[in-house]
Amino acid sequence: MSIPLSLMDPLTATIVVVSLMLLILLAFGSPIIYTGWKQRQQYHQLSAIHTSLDDAIPGEAVAVSGTVSSQSRTIDSPYRSQRCALALWDTARLSRGQGPQWFLEASGVMADELLITLDTEHVPVTGQLRQRRVLTTAQALSSALGVDVNSTLAFIDTELSQSGFEKQFTPTEDLTETYRAHNRDIGFDRPTRDSSNMLGRLLAEQLTPHNTVRYRELTFQGGDEITIIGEKTDDGISVVETGGTHPIISSESLSNRLSRYRREYVLRLYGYPAFCLLFSALIAYPTGGVPNANNVQFTLYI
Asked: Where do transmembrane segments lie in this chain (predicted)?
């Protein structure tokens, strides 16, 4: 059975139009809402963890904030070969198939015998300090959509987006041996081409070309402020997953991270649906009053 909207009373027609528009907008924005929901989960997880080693027992999640100790052994960063106590890195490829989007190929953490200094106490950091993650196609898509905010090593993207070294290579540019060796190490077959046509060269002056590869790294030197969330051990902290709480290595304090997560999940989880509702209502009320249902040209099927 079908009912033309023009035969409905204005209030009913308005409700139908608003509902349909709202459902469409919510469907298109479902990744935004899902990301907000995941951030809300992580906000509550991080809010519940201990912020002092004295308050936690071995095996529980704890956040430790201090400085990277100068006693830590130094390592070479992956791209610049810069001596440092800790390095975070990632490799991503630009896709312009449906709008510009960076797809993460791999990311990782590099450190040796890391120490965090709290006043006069040196807290050893153990665990997977030379960990890396090479993404599958599904994981790369989730990362590009921002729906893996709770996954292992997802904190690296946040850190590298705020600061650090970045180098991009277009498909026609040659890589140095350092970058070629890195690609071989992570199993990344970089898309290349010999040259671009005239149109491609003109567009490259305005837009980053498709299949451009981006390399980013962030280094921590002795004395740099750092926050690590992990599992308390008998003599320090271990960078491993604890009861669903993923490890985090950050230059941002836990309180600042919680404030940011709360702000972002409120906007995504509650602000976006509220905007969709308001926008749908404005569309249904083009003149600010009761809509003219006689002008509606489609039929509602029930």
From this structure: 12-34, 265-285
